Amino acid sequence: MALESFKAQISLLLEEMVNQPEDLHEVQEQLREKLREMRAMGLPLPADLVELERRLDGDFDATEA
Asked: DSSP alpha helices (H): ranges in 1-46?
């Protein structure tokens, strides 16, 4: 899958996070999966998405405690 395709899919996921906050956890998991796929393919990860992933992980850890 090309980098542009990943970017388009991630953009749609981010829109979902804004437009359907009730599905936030599901969308977060989908976003993490896309980033894992990009890492596995050796594609460059946008710094802002890496930061978002870190923050989401922090939020998830805070709710687990």
From this structure: 3-19, 24-40
Distance CA 17, CA 27 (A): 6
Is residue 2 helix, strand or coil? coil
Residue 13 has pLDDT above 90, yes or no: no
For the chain, first and last CA: distance in Å? Answer: 37
The answer to whether 38 touches 45, Cβ cutoff 8 Å, is yes
What predicted TM-score, i.e. pTM, was given to this entire model? 0.70
**DSSP summary character for residue 28:** H
d(CA 59, CA 20): 18
